[in-house]
Known about the structure:
By secondary structure, the protein is mostly helical. The chain contains two helices and two strands. The protein has helices at residues 2-77, 84-104; strands spanning 125-126, 133-134.
Amino acid sequence: MEALANRDAAAAAAARTHAEIEAAETEEREARALLARLNTAVHARDAVERLAEMERKLAVAESVRVEIETEEAALALLKMPETALSELEALAIEIAKLRAPAEADSASVKIAYAPDTPLAIGLPVLKPSCTEVAFPA
């Protein structure tokens, strides 16, 4: 009798243990499913943030592209007259002619030697300020 009672108690304990194992496995599956949903939500949130940043960059790039195309269209409308180059060359020559007398009147180097001084030729030495020239003795 006692052995039968022990067997029934052991069988009941085993059944309870199996039920607890099944409940734990069910909880684990639910926890894994929740974790997978959480990971998916985190990745989705990150993807939304990246998408928003890319859309912002795209909007900036699109506005720059439109501005470039507008400027290119305006530039294509501007046409230089065929005589413009020859007129610019004539103007440059006229400016050079007007500047020539002023440049001709600018100071030049004159060296006056005393009659009894022997003639010495040397290379000029530039001072650091580059405004004075000194000849070695």
